[in-house]
Amino acid sequence: MKCPKLLIPMILSSLLLSGCSGSGTEKNAPSGSDTDYTGADPVDLDFYVWDDGERYVTNVVDAFNAMHNDIHVNVIFVDSEDYEGRLEKIFQENHVDIFASKGMSPLISEIEQGYVMDITPYVNQSAQDGSLDLTAFGNMFNDVTYEDRYYSFPSRATCWELYYNKDLFDAAGLPYPQQMTWEEYADLAVKLTDPEKGIYGGYWANWIPNFYALQHGSYLIDDDLTYIREGVELLNRFYNEDKSHVSYADMEQGEDPSYDVFAMFESGKIAMCPQGEWMLNILLEDQTSVHWDVAPMPVPEGVESGTSWGQYQFVAMGSSCTDPDASWVFMKFFCGREGSLIRAQNAIIPAYTDDDIIREYLSAAQTEHARYFFDAKKYQEQLPLKGYEDTRQAFADLVTSYMMGEISLDECMDAFDTQRQSFFQ
After folding, report:
1. Antiparallel, parallel or unpaired: β 200-202 and 270-276
2. Tens-place pLDDT, residues 195-209
3. What's the whole-number mean pLDDT along residues 355-384?
């Protein structure tokens, strides 16, 4: 296996100016711009997106529709539970003009099935004519192509940081966390744990067990699995040795494992919680009584302060799109500065940022410490490689078996090393 740094195109200019060919549905050079759409007749577009983004998506779409007489976007909200599975059925039964994707892995699956249009010409032209500032999307934009082609555009950026309960810190007489190493975090979690009161020092949701390696810039396809293994050992300390965190067994048995982490934090039982920026939005919407704030994500010893991880959410055109030119006009609005400003005002971090957008977000977030989301050095959570999602899921399943005491650490790592080979043959 090769290091992913050799597999990902890292020079943005070469991607934008290249004329490389690719498979999939490709549109010729687009006509018009976002202010002078040249379609002969007004067009209606269907935009599919998950329903827990209804509030901020509706605000952006309403603003777009108010500005355009010749393009009207109809939003169709899809149940967030098993969004990708529901979307696949929609692709099979309906035409899809535009749709949202939660990350690179599901998007690659949709590309491979022929559901997604190649939008490389649109991205190239927008970069060349200056109608879209690609530098405003940050360093992760280098990793949004698949096989050197653009099939989507980033709409929202995720970033993990550390949430904490100020009340529990005050009760323990401890200062609020700042930048820590994971060793310091582990020690602090023990101090904050109170089994008699049902209080845990931390809740580490079992979603990204390779977090420690990510902060080293190491991925699940690397030949050297040292950082992967060290991260699993660290998690085992949290869950099984120190017992300072909600255990894997308890997380697996929860009524709604994907939401229990937020419910427990809001109940005042969790002192620290590494989570994505979406948790801030949930805490604001729920108007929780917990006094909370955000600190930088702890880092491994020797890793640069402020290092975290994240990914993009995307907007893309379906291969059955009725009017790609009009759809690109909307995508540029939704993903560009206008739509991003509206999302920021709703405490949602857009992929596109500038000083005004950051100010709007910090105001909506109600804490200056939310700036850590923008200051972080982020590693891409998912690689744009076919088979990477299968690799990630296989690793997560094996880590679960190890944390539950079903297999040893050596068995976990050996099985993973064997399984991952099959995904990239």
Report:
1. parallel
2. 999 999 999 998 999
3. 94
Write the DSSP string, 288-338: -SS-EEEEPPPB-TTSPTTEEEE-EEEEEEBTT-S-HHHHHHHHHHHHSHH
Copy the structure tokens of residue 273: 């919680």
Mean pLDDT of 138-147: 80
CATH top class, domain 4-158+311-353? alpha beta
In the DSSP assignment, the letter for residue 241 is: I
For the chain, the residue count is 425
Contact in structure between 119 and 150 (CB atoms under 8 Å): yes
- For residue 107, what are the contacts with CB-CB under 8 A and spacing of at least 6? 101, 116, 146, 151, 152, 314, 316
The reply to whether 4-158+311-353 and 160-309+385-422 are identical in fold is yes
Q: In whole angstroms, what is the distance from residue 78 CA to residue 93 CA?
A: 14
Domain ranges, ordered by start, for the chain: 4-158+311-353, 160-309+385-422
At residue 33, does pLDDT exceed 80?
no
3-state secondary structure of 229: helix
**CA–CA distance, 19 with 195 (Å, rounded to integer):** 61
CA distance 304 to 48: 39
Within 10 angstroms of residue 353's Cβ, the number of other Cβ atoms is 20
The domain made up of 160-309+385-422 is a member of CATH 3.40.50.1000: no
pLDDT, tens digit (0-9, with 9 covering 90-100), for 348-369: 999 999 999 999 999 999 999 9
